[in-house]
Fold this protein.
Amino acid sequence: MEINELFGKYALGTIRPEDYIAWAEQLLTTGIESPSLPVLAGMDLNRPVDSIEVYECFLKVTTELGIDWPDESAALQRYSEILCQKILEEKIEPGHGLSSLAKLYAANDYSGGLYATWDCLEEDISLLYTEHGAIFNTGLTEENRDDYIRKVARQYLQLIQLQLPENFFERVFCQNCKSIQPTRTVRIDKPWMPERLYRLIYHKGPTWELRCIDCGSRNLQSMNDFAGRANYLEIINKDTQD
């Protein structure tokens, strides 16, 4: 376990005393020394583990080794990359990695960003076992679940390196005119009638649909969808090459 994994788990609130101890044991085997390191590594020997004591000893070790703590945002981002790498290297089960990655969205105050990728994927996998099926991820099935998580992890590692627009998940890819754009909703139920009058007559609100700004097509893929993000990457890479 590397130090950035500890920082990520701490920021996410999923760290255990055993994680600090395992990290210390690993450092000892590589020949790294500090006064408090063997103390931390041996804290689970012959006595119950005290989480506060373990944490305080870990702080001493980081001070002795000159290790700086990253801010929470940086710690979470690096942890997300570590989890994706572990999924791809088959060091953790895809479902287990997804469970941890999905927690990042809540840890980020549900404010969007790429962490929404994992929240949508986890929700879709839960929907596979209902009559509805996946909503956000095109092609996701019970049979390909693990492989799908892996390919999303691979894609995520590409996207995390890019300077994405703040409203990334509010954009769509139009399969008709091959463009990426913000979403636009168009009213399709008697658009000429004032909405207030429509509600008065029909006792319900009118129906709205997402439409392409350029060509009016309904054949759109959200950035919540793996396929939409794949098309985004394809266009970005093409523009870079040109």
Remarks:
- Strands lie at 171-174, 179-182, 185-187, 208-210, 220-222.
- The longest strand covers residues 171-174.
